[in-house]
Amino acid sequence: MICCCSNEVLTMSKRKRPDLKVPAPYMTEQEKILYNLIQSKQDLGIWSWDIKRETSLPDNVVDKSLKSLRSKLLIKEVVNVQFKGRKHYLASEFEPSSEITGGKWYNDQGFLETEFINFLKDQCLKHIRNLKIATVDTVANAVRRSRVLKIDCSSQEIGDIVRALVLDNDVIEMRSNGLGEFASVPTGRMCYKCRRSPDAMKEPRVGVMAWIPCGVCPRIARCMPGGTISPMTCEYYSKWLDF
């Protein structure tokens, strides 16, 4: 009898339990069309005007459906640093890409973190000077070891800062030939050295790029006409031209 009960319990334990999934919120046909489109854009999201253009739905239907999808927490509105006046939507399961948010270089309101960028420039410049000849990776490792930052910066992000220093005329970019002062850097690897002497570091930057917004923007290396980051769509550059 005990054996029989044990077998019964064992059999019941092996039975597949039904999946207790939370039912998805109900969506109208129009909402499904919009949601599927927004979700397909993944972490890049989509501008509300493009939603209307791609779905060909009436404006009032799109506006009502977007509002409903937001209330159901299926989509969210995010700030696009390149087009702050536009309503940009993302499926809730995704986090916006750095192309949308600007990464660490922009705050939650979409404004350039000039103070943080300048601080990081000074740190990178100090380490390049100490290293004599440096690669992006050696600068990034030096910054991490110094523990002066409360957040971690990737090598790619440090590379953005180092290339901004090149444009500031503070750093020289060159390829290693593996000889002499380049002995520690593999042949062909891009590396950097300080252009100015330590005493000159104390002087304010007067490079041509320091006078325009591009001089503090670490994304300038990816800025190009017609690109996601472009001088034609940069509101900081436009304001500088107006000034």
UniProtKB/TrEMBL annotation:
Main location: nucleus
Cellular localization per UniProt: Nucleus
Coiled-coil stretches noted in the UniProt entry, renumbered to this chain: none
Keywords recorded for this protein, A-Z: DNA-directed RNA polymerase, Nucleus, Transcription
Pfam families the record matches: RNA_pol_Rpc34 (PF05158)
Lineage top rank: taxon: Eukaryota
SUPFAM superfamilies membership: Winged helix' DNA-binding domain
UniProt record similarity statement: Belongs to the eukaryotic RPC34/RPC39 RNA polymerase subunit family.
PANTHER family xref list: RNA POLYMERASE III DNA DIRECTED , 39KD SUBUNIT-RELATED
Protein name: DNA-directed RNA polymerase III subunit RPC6-like isoform X3
Organism: Rhodamnia argentea
GN (gene name): LOC115738645
